[in-house]
Amino acid sequence: MESANELTATQALGLMREGLLSVEEMAQACLARIRARDPMVRGWVHLDPELILRNARELDKREVKGPLHGIPIAVKDVIMTADMPTQHNSPLYKGSFPTVDAGCIKTLRAAGALIFGKTDTTEFASVTRGGTARHPLDPSRTPGGSSSGSAAVVGDFQVPISLGTQTAGSTIRPGSFCGVYAMKPTWGAINREGLKMLSVSLDTLGLFARSAEDLDLLADVFALEDRGPVKPFALRGARIVACRSPAWDKTEPATWEAFDRGINLLRDAGAEVAPLDLPAAFSALPDNHATVMAGEAQVSFLSEIRAQPELLHEDLTAMAKNSKGVTKGALVAAYDSAAQCRIAFDELAAGFDAVLTPSARGEAPVGTVTGDAAVNAMWTLLHVPVIQVPGFKGPFGLPVGLSLTSPRYTDRHLLQVARVIGPLFGARGAA
Amino acid sequence: MESANELTATQALGLMREGLLSVEEMAQACLARIRARDPMVRGWVHLDPELILRNARELDKREVKGPLHGIPIAVKDVIMTADMPTQHNSPLYKGSFPTVDAGCIKTLRAAGALIFGKTDTTEFASVTRGGTARHPLDPSRTPGGSSSGSAAVVGDFQVPISLGTQTAGSTIRPGSFCGVYAMKPTWGAINREGLKMLSVSLDTLGLFARSAEDLDLLADVFALEDRGPVKPFALRGARIVACRSPAWDKTEPATWEAFDRGINLLRDAGAEVAPLDLPAAFSALPDNHATVMAGEAQVSFLSEIRAQPELLHEDLTAMAKNSKGVTKGALVAAYDSAAQCRIAFDELAAGFDAVLTPSARGEAPVGTVTGDAAVNAMWTLLHVPVIQVPGFKGPFGLPVGLSLTSPRYTDRHLLQVARVIGPLFGARGAA
């Protein structure tokens, strides 16, 4: 068999059920990969091999095994973990060690997951200046962000699953850059207690994996439920719409080519693919997203700037001081416009199996700036589920993905779509 | 002078500025009152006099004094404090001691506040079965809840200010029962990071004090800002509307009489007071609030029921199991209906200086059940600011208050209204 660290969670669970793989072996394989690769990828900010192996052995002793029994999961370091520090890549929280688990961590542990370590994030998941993590395929490039380490370590086969967060494009964009599956569920579908607050009406837990099946497994564990029954999905006769999004003018040829190729692959497989033109009101969504994020970030960072202003990154200081000058009137107007667009989008998208749209501007850029969330922000504001599907490549041979989206609380349906489209893009996207 | 524990924060700050009162003296006066009264009121779940006095002496040494310099503030025990346990009145969190401050606590400490201790809450601020706290004027009665201890200790002159939370009526109702000022700011106006999560789109930090000036002082510290300029307010010629709310049929004679008396006092002072009939769509708000709270609570308590189901209160188990059977379709419909009502209410209320509405069904009931949020829930769902103003009395001689509300992000304006109406109700409400 391939080295255990290369398995998806679903594959590893299958072997474990057969008694062919222990949790400790799985953990050791991941640790070996990390030892070999971390000096280049630098995705981890806290990793304690002794703690991991002790927990792995404990899990091996359990008679009752949970649905994520022994699966190593990396955690973005803006999410509280009871047994590891949570430092937000901020000097304000250096050595900070709250002794409670975030809600999502508690749920994962109850499912038997092996919480592995903490991964690199931009400061408070809020700026685009990167931390330590590098792109697994090219250390001169960013893995994206703000969930930089979480995307990099899954893309680099160091662990099968990781957690990130998304307020603009912090899960979907690094997922695309690193060539992995990534999911931003419907806003509110997974508890966000114990995640650092940036923007209360946008912040969402993000999921990274190397297969759509693994995302579906996480959806089971987090009890994601749809607003209606989930029907089987097949490409033949499927109705997909392709949406360039209001930020199309910011995308690059790598994304144009992936988008065209994706549409052609779907058509060749028997799906109808029509263009989706969004109503005029939707053109305000990118600006409204920026308004909501700035207006809410000002509130979120008040305590930090009041406590120790000298330790706050200049970009965060600017947020706390409302340097964009967002008025409360503008904030309320953005809330209300977004609320109307949510209703309209759900109605519009309900007539189709999925909406196909870009995941990022293009390939991962050179440098440490984690990139631009231009194509992601509107979907985050709409609160809809988004799944990044890898498979394409850009001119530098680096991954490019495409996103699938659908109405609020159709996450399980969208996962079924991703489970069919994913293997198609994976097999033929880069051919 | 009266005993220092009876001072409002504004009064105490004035004396401190003149060098007539030290932080330690203020703290000692509060501690003496607590020693005398806590055996009956039982509002505190954690109080460490040594820590308090050590911090008080530190504050007395400071050269630069913050806007809340030395003011004792009690904290509902669902809000994280770095130097005290945070236990949520849940056996799941017995002895839990996260070492970080919630955002609001960090902001208060930076303003020089003396974080005093933790106050009794119903389990996870989520059920109506009370904890230890009793009504300060009648130990056979509830102080209301879920912010039971925070309302009781301010009402009992043990500290001048306290923090609660509100998801339905958990701040405004106990404020009314205990005869104190209470405020639920616009949703999102104060950071809710570090508060236990019940319902992500409803949870709001609540403020208790014994004067409107003190609430205004807190509004300064939390940098509350309005959507427009704040104009001076006077009762002569003011335009007030009186809204019985869709839950009027659940109110009792004590509230009817306070409501009528309040209207007459305002009219006698020269205000125009007209009845406000809400549009038909608003009649769905109480049900929509129940749907949103149940739908979101199911997500919030997933981790607790997965981790240690045997330690969860049966009402919370029911929430985690979605015993009300709220579908995701119903949740989305409730979100969307509420979003439309927010827009409509802001437009409707913008034509008036304030909306007057009940704070509670009536006086504090006998027993340990903390009461009913029927008259509060719709305003929480509308995200608007609400200020409970005390001053009236019911047939048992216990306090009854009335609420003021206005469009989202007009909190500072509403505080100006409360600063004028509060003394009127206080002087004449119970005459």
Tell me what the structure shows.
The structure is a homodimer of 431-residue chains. Chain A has 431 residues and is an alpha/beta fold. The first copy, chain A, has two domains: 218 residues, Amidase signature (AS) domain (Amidase signature (AS) enzymes, Alpha-Beta Complex); 126 residues, D-Maltodextrin-Binding Protein, domain 2. Chain A has 14 helices and eleven strands. An eleven-stranded mixed sheet of chain A has the order 1-3-2-4-6-5-10-11-9-7-8, sandwiched between helices. In chain A, strand 2, helix 4 and strand 3 form a beta-alpha-beta unit. In chain A, helix 2 runs antiparallel to helix 3, helix 7 packs antiparallel against helix 14 and helix 9 crosses helix 12. The longest helix of chain A has 22 residues. The radius of gyration of chain A is 20 Å and the shape is globular. The model of chain A has no long low-confidence stretch (mean pLDDT 97). The interface between A and B is large, with 53 and 53 residues.
Please give the alpha-carbon distance between the first and last residues of chain A: 26 Å
* Share in helix of chain A: 25-40%
Query: Number of domains in the coordinates of chain A?
Result: 2
* Low-pLDDT sequence parts of chain A: none
Mean pLDDT of chain A: 97
The most extensive interface between chains reads: A-B, 53 and 53 residues
CATH topology of the largest domain in chain A: the name is Amidase signature (AS) enzymes
Rg estimate of chain A, integer Å: 20 Å
Gross CATH architecture of the largest domain in chain A: Alpha-Beta Complex
